[in-house]
Amino acid sequence: MVNTRTLLLGTSALALSLCLQAAPNNDKNHGQASKGQQHSQKHNNQSALDKSDTGGKHAQEYQRDYHNDYQADLSEIERILRGYQSPTPAKALPPGIAKNLARGKPLPPGIAKQIDPTLARQLPYYPGYEWRQYGTDAVLVEVGTTIVREVLRDILR
């Protein structure tokens, strides 16, 4: 008896879901996106394009692998960062805050900021990582986790 009820209930649920999928769409736009949705989609596509260009030098053709290429790129990275003249000079962080910045730890919240896009375009782009400024330090962090991978101390003076 229980098996018959379970079978009947399952069959009814399946039939109902098939009916709902086959139901006609009574939307007056007939499957077309509304103007608000079109604008939102256009804005999101443009936003994705803007974000893809902030990754670094020649973002499409100059993608490097952090694990294999960082040490080879280090002298060039230091030269670029030392030669950069910021419109607003960076100030060193207080020692108590600066000591919280370490490789392998999450980036302390609230103080790090995006590196100037002009400077970011000159630096090598490592997929999944981004450059941040933490006082006078340049920091390479993982995008999803904000785990600090590299710290270049007092390089942005």
So what's the CATH class of one domain? Alpha Beta
- Counting DSSP H or I runs of 4 or more residues, the number of helices is 5
Helix and strand element order? HHHHEHEEE
Task: Kindly identify the CATH topology of one domain.
Answer: Nuclear Transport Factor 2, Chain: A
Oligomer state of the chains in this structure: single chain
- Categorize the overall geometry: elongated
Which structural category do the helix and sheet elements fall into? alpha+beta
> How much helix, percentage-wise, in residues?
40-55%
Strand line-up across the major sheet: 1-2-3-4
Q: Approximately how much beta-strand content do the residues carry?
A: 5-15%
**What is the C-alpha radius of gyration, as a whole number of Å?**
26 Å
Could you give me the name of the CATH homologous superfamily of one domain? inner membrane protein cigr
Count of extended strands: 4
Features:
four-stranded antiparallel sheet, 5 helices, alpha+beta, 157 residues, Nuclear Transport Factor 2, Chain: A, 41% helix
Strand and helix layout:
Layout: H1 2-22, H2 35-52, H3 66-83, H4 95-98, E1 113-114, H5 117-120, E2 129-134, E3 137-142, E4 148-152
Antiparallel strand pairs: 1-2, 2-3, 3-4
How does this model look, in words?
With 157 residues, the chain is of the alpha+beta class. The protein has a domain at 66-152: Nuclear Transport Factor 2, Chain: A. 41% of the residues lie in helices and 12% in strands. The chain has a 4-stranded antiparallel sheet with strand order 1-2-3-4, covered by helices on one side. β2 (129-134) and β3 form a beta hairpin. The longest helix is centred in the N-terminal third of the chain and has 21 residues, at 2-22. It is elongated, with a radius of gyration of 26 Å. Mean pLDDT is 74; it is low at 27-31 and 33-61.
